[in-house]
Design brief:
Structural class: mainly beta
Radius of gyration: 19 Å
Strand content: 25-35%
Number of helices: 1
Pfam families: YjdM (PF03831), Zn_Ribbon_YjdM (PF08274)
Protein name: Alkylphosphonate utilization protein
Distance between the termini: 53 Å
Family: Belongs to the YjdM family.
Mean pLDDT: 89
InterPro entries: YjdM, YjdM_C, YjdM_N
């Protein structure tokens, strides 16, 4: 009999296979049934063009971004220097000239 893996989020044993992924009915977590090629490759942060980013890189904003809680806008073409990569949805921690420290999503920048 084929043994299914336990859920990595809640450790439930009631997982099931759905197409190309596993699903946990208890916490609704879904994950791929194929293992990533390597841990470093899956954890790499990439810009909008698919280029890998690293700490200390300079990036350019490719879309006007409203600053939450303010009337300020980070304009397209703004160059941000010396970025720092962090975990989470907003994976770039930086300081934007004229605005201050903020977090950006990597999908809205390109490597300069």
């Amino acid at each position: 009999m084929n043994v299914l893996p336990a859920c990595p989020a809640c450790a439930s044993v009631y997982t099931y296979h759905d197409g190309l992924q596993y699903v946990c009915p208890e916490c609704a977590h879904e994950w791929s049934d194929t293992a990533p090629a390597s841990e470093d490759e899956s954890a790499t942060v990439r810009d909008a063009n698919g280029n890998p980013l690293a700490d200390g890189d300079s990036v350019t904003v490719i879309k006007d971004l409203k600053v939450k809680g303010s009337s300020l806008v980070v304009k397209v073409g703004t160059k941000v220097k010396n970025i720092r990569l962090v975990d989470g949805d907003h994976d770039i921690d930086c300081k934007v000239d004229g605005i201050g420290p903020m977090k950006l999503k990597s999908i809205y920048v390109k490597k300069a």
